Amino acid sequence: MKYKRGKLKDTVGTSKKGEIRTNLAVYNRIVDLFGEPYIYSDLAFRHGSPQVEWVIKFDDGTIANIYDRIEVNPKKNKEWTIGGNSEKALYYIVALVLKHYRSLIKRAFGDHK
Asked: Which of 10, 95, 8, 9 is nearest to 61 (CA)?
């Protein structure tokens, strides 16, 4: 599944599809996968809006966005909301996070079969 960084305007019409709550989806690992997020002002944090957001555009037209909704420093956050223009957005993000985690394990411990 191929993807690229999307633009904030790509998220128009998206809605919440689910959440990721795991140590597999910490800030630095999401940055490893999707690059640096769009960063909102401190004012957004005070109003309960996302502080950071990634927008991912897949080759099949699926748009996914990952954002925080919890009043926690994003770099310490382990709970992320996944939005998108279809249910595939959630599936794609979870699949990519798991694939990335498996590659980290292989690098650390080798490929034991």
From this structure: 10
Summarised one tens digit per residue, pLDDT across range 73-82 is 888 888 899 9
- Domain positions in the chain: 3-109
Tell me the whole-structure pTM to 2 decimals.
Answer: 0.84
Cβ neighbours for 60, distance < 8 A, ≥ 6 positions apart: 88
Helix (H) or strand (E) holding 80: strand 79-84
Handedness of CA 7, 59, 97, 88 (dihedral sign): positive
Of the options 3.40.1350, 3.90.1310, 3.30.70, 3.30.160, the CATH number for the domain spanning 3-109: 3.30.160
